[in-house]
Design goal:
mainly alpha, 14 helices, about 65% helix
Length: about 240
């Protein structure tokens, strides 16, 4: 009995290995992926999630397989959340699994799991920021998220160590309530530690497009508009305008 169980586990692992071998022929990976779908156990579903973590040599095939895995996991329903959660906890990139999450979980469960991911990706130096960037981009675009929910969760990353993380956080706020994003972005723009011209321009563009009222920070914002920014933008009437 024990030997039979051990043999079954080994067979499942071999199938997962085939499904996640980026050098295999696509037909071999497809076969293994379909076996995992038919198995349907938690370990098999976890193995399907692992397909998100590799990039095969042919881009079109890679995208096809990952989209198929997304649809397959979504078809399982909420039961997929256990292996999905387990996978995302250790994964380096989570763009595809987040697409599964938003389609199978309730709004409350999405927020719960998102908060777990944010807690594990606290602002600060990280060697591989891809997971953090995936999370920020996705949450900023998550339609059920209210302005308060999105702004509160993205705010800590507007001054993150990683420039691309800062960019993703600011971008995620761009379409939100000007009154809520204004104080956050103005503070980020005028902080002495912000040396990235790319980030400064991004913030200024958001302030201009959203017509964010600058209030008593108008002079401070104007002081940042130097060099190329001064050629394109100005502070007038308490808001940022194009020159």
């Amino acid at each position: 009995m024990v030997f039979g169980l051990f043999s079954k586990e080994k067979a499942l692992q071999r199938t997962i290995d085939k499904a996640t071998n980026k050098l295999s022929q696509q037909v071999d990976r497809w076969g293994a992926l379909e076996k995992l779908r038919e198995d349907g156990t938690e370990e098999a579903l976890f193995g399907l999630c692992k397909r998100f973590g590799i990039t095969s040599t042919k881009g079109v095939e890679d995208e096809q397989e990952k989209n198929w895995v997304v649809d397959t996991l979504v078809a399982v329903g909420p039961a997929v959340l256990v292996p999905l959660r387990r996978y995302m906890a250790k994964a380096n990139e989570i763009a595809f699994p987040l697409r599964v999450l938003e389609r199978v979980a309730s709004r409350e469960k999405v927020l719960e799991i998102a908060d777990e991911l944010f807690a594990a990706e606290a602002p600060g130096y990280v060697r591989m920021p891809e997971k953090r960037i995936d999370l920020l981009r996705w949450f900023g675009e998550w339609k059920p998220g209210t302005d308060d929910e999105v702004v509160a969760r993205l705010t800590p990353y507007v001054t993150d160590f990683d420039e691309n993380s800062r960019f993703a956080a600011i971008d995620g706020m761009a379409a939100r309530d000007p009154g809520k994003i204004g104080p956050v972005l103005i503070e980020a723009l005028t902080r002495p530690d912000e040396e990235s011209g790319r980030i400064k321009r991004q913030i200024v563009e958001v302030l201009e497009k959203a017509k964010v009222p600058l209030g008593d920070k108008a002079q401070a914002v104007a002081g940042v508009l130097t060099g190329p920014l001064a050629a394109d933008f100005k502070v007038e009437g308490g808001i940022v305008k194009k020159s």
